[in-house]
Design brief:
alpha/beta
Length: about 300
Amino acid sequence: MSTPRKVTKAIIPAAGLGTRFLPATKAMPKEMLTVVNKPIIQYAIEEAYEAGIREFIIITGRGKVSMENHFDYPYELADTLLKKNKLAELEMVKNTLPSDARMYYTRQGEPLGLGHAVWCGHTITGDDPFAVLLPDDVVCRGKNNGLAEMIKMYEETGKSVVMCEEVPQDRVSNYGILKLAEQGAKGSRLSVNGFVEKPKAEEAPSNYGVVGRYVLSPAHMKVLETVKPGKGGEIQLTDAMAEIAATEGYSGYISTNRRFDCGDKVGFQMANLYFAMKDPYIAERLQPFLNEMATEAAKVCKM
C-alpha cells in the first residue's frame, strides 16, 4: 500500500442559516457569534492549525462576508492600535490567522446537506486527503489535540477517521452512529465498517456517535458527487462514509476532551461560562455572580 499523503487541508462548512439563534443570526452568521471574545469559527481554525492544517476551505452562503473580513488583516485597525500603543490588542488582531495559513472561500448555493457542503470544496482539495471540522462543535484542548491524533491515524493506516463519543442510549437518534467491525476499543481507536444516520435507539448498532471532526480520504469526493439524497432529502456525508467504509475500511477515534455543541442555545451558554472561567480576570469577577445565581435557582427549585 502506498504511503498516504499528509493531511494539510481542512473544509469548514459554514453556510447554515442559524435559525436556532434568531433574531441574532438575522444579519450575523452563526459562526461569528462569540464565545467570550472569539467567534465560534476561530476556535475551529486554531484547533486545526495546531494539528498541522495550513489550508482552510470555508463553505459559505449569503450574508457570510463578515467571516471573510474577520480573517483578513485590518490594516486601518492595526495602525490605530499601534498609534495608541495598544500592543496587546494589536497582537490579538495580528494573530487571528497565522501568516503561513491560507484561506479559501466557496459558496454552497443551496442548502442540500452536509455532504453537499463538503463536496463544494472538491476543486480545492483535489486528490488530497482532508479534514472536516464542524464549527458548531467547540472541542476543548485536553492532553492531546484530538484532530492531530486523527491525522496521525490516517497517515499511519490510510483509513479515514471520524471522531466519536459514547452517547446515552436515549440520544443515539441525534447522531450518526458507528457500526463496529470488532468489539471493543484498542485504546482510543475503533475499527469501523459502517455508519447509520440518526437511528432509533432500539436499532442503533452501537452507542458511539459521530461528532464534528473527520479526516477523509479523497475517495469521498467522488462518492459525494454521485450519492443520492438520503435522510431528510439531503445529501448526507454519513452515506458517503458508509460506502467508503465498505471498500477502504474506517477508523473511529474516541474523544475524551470536553466538547460544547454551540449550535444549541444551552451548549453555547455553557461554552461561554466554561471559557470565561478559564480567564483569571473574568473568573474572579464572575464567580460571585454565579454563586448568587445558583443560590437563587436552588430557592426556586424548593418552591
